[in-house]
Design goal:
It contains 10 helices and 15 strands. The protein starts with a strand and ends with a strand. Helix 5 links the parallel strand 9 and strand 10. With 336 residues, it is α/β, with parallel strands linked by helices. The strands form 3 sheets. Strands 3, 4, 5, 6, 7, 14 and 15 form a 7-stranded mixed β-sheet that branches. Strands 10-9-8-11-12-13 form a 6-stranded parallel β-sheet, with helices on both faces. It binds NADP nicotinamide-adenine-dinucleotide phosphate. The site of NADP nicotinamide-adenine-dinucleotide phosphate (NAP) has 32 residues, from helix 1, helix 4 and strand 9.
């Protein structure tokens, strides 16, 4: 089979190889990969800044993929040849609280990922692909859709009458807009671009703020909520801006710490946190039970993932380059 392998850190070391097709061990599925989608972590991993000490040489990268079961190992009971499946990122996190050992079983590093014609995964490391989605669409779900869903439904209880704030128009935030809007919540979206904000409104954002022309977007969010603040901020930006997310959240509201686009550390004014009684909640994607719940919800509401560009398998480097520039929604690479 053909597989992209990271022979060393740096995109120039992501090379296409011809290698033997893997065999499924007991409890595993051999999946014929149809499509992968890229997340910011996939780029950080290639750049060598995402747990580099844990990544094996020659890793097949990319966490999120969808495909068709081509063979099953002994003892497999949940899936059969021909079933359509979508990968689950924290492959051993099935339900319940997070445990540190789950970190070693992330699909797409340290475990092999989807940027190959075939990949093996445990039958507990996939969910059934929702029938209404193509494999290219389903490949966008495992990280970018589950992460905001987990924040809204497992740590929060977002529904009608609540207000959430999402930052920018990348993969996580676009899913956050679509999901929160389907839950009946009011959604305040920020972006550097008025054009993107117009598209965000078409997807369900009720209020929008351009964070370039309105740098104090937290004050704007407070104004939009009559000084109360929002129930949940999905913070994908991180860095020093975390302080603004705390300002924008209501008293006893939640800031879901998801991303680090602007940096991996922040200085907090503890009095802000104390007076606001803010819940600061770290999010690490989510477990498989919640992914199942999400898939049912998406199916029920027929939410269609927003794909910016689909690349051919041979053009994987170009897909990573676009990720570095930013996309509206998701970037997909066709494999099969
Ligand atoms: N903890 C987790 O479980 C988890 C899961 C998924 C992702 N993440 C993290 O979340 C972050 C976002 O991931 P993603 O895949 O959605 O990224 P992405 O698709 O690359 O999103 C990039 C977009 O974010 C917006 N942005 C960039 N800098 C910004 C800033 N300073 N203020 C406001 N918006 C800004 C821009 O939107 P505009 O062009 O509209 O301005 C940009 O297009 C990354 O750090 C990623 O590693 C974490």
């Amino acid at each position: 089979m053909r597989a992209w392998m990271l022979d060393d850190f740096g995109l120039e070391n992501l090379n296409l190889h011809e290698i033997p097709t893997p065999e499924p061990a007991a409890g595993e599925l051999l999946i014929k990969v149809s499509a992968v989608s890229l997340n910011y972590r996939d780029k950080a991993l290639v750049d060598g800044i995402y747990a580099p000490e844990k990544m094996p040489k020659g890793l097949i990268p990319v966490a999120d993929f969808a495909g068709v079961v081509a063979a099953t190992g002994s003892g497999v009971t949940k899936y059969a040849v021909g079933d359509r499946v979508t990968s689950h990122f924290y492959s051993t996190w099935q339900d319940g609280p997070w445990l540190p050992e789950y970190a070693d079983f992330q699909v797409g590093g340290p475990l092999g990922g989807g940027l190959a014609e075939y990949q093996v995964l445990s039958e507990d490391a996939v969910v059934p692909t929702p029938p209404y989605l193509s494999d290219e669409e389903a490949a966008t779900l495992p990280i970018a859709a589950l992460t905001p869903w987990f924040a809204m439904r497992e740590y929060g209880d977002i529904g009608a009458g609540d207000t959430i704030l999402v930052q920018g128009t990348g993969g996580v935030s676009i899913f956050a807009i679509q999901i929160a809007s389907a839950l009946g919540a009011r959604v305040i979206a920020t972006s550097s671009s008025d054009d993107k904000l117009a598209r965000a409104r078409e997807l369900g954002a009720t209020d929008t703020i351009n964070y370039r022309t309105t740098p104090d977007w937290a004050a704007a969010a407070l104004e939009l909520t009559d000084g109360r603040g929002v129930d949940l901020v999905i913070d994908v930006v991180g860095g020093e801006g975390l302080r603004d997310s705390i300002r924008a959240a209501r008293g006893s509201g939640m800031v879901a710490v998801v991303g680090f686009l602007d940096g991996q550390s922040a200085t907090l004014d503890l009095m802000d946190v104390i007076w606001h009684q803010t819940h600061i909640q770290g999010i690490a994607v989510g477990h498989r039970r919640s992914f199942h719940d999400l898939v049912r919800f998406l199916d029920e509401h027929h939410i269609t993932p927003v794909i910016d560009t689909v690349y051919d398998f041979a053009d994987a480097h170009a897909a990573y380059d676009q990720l570095a520039r930013g996309a509206f929604g998701k970037i997909v690479i066709k494999v099969g």
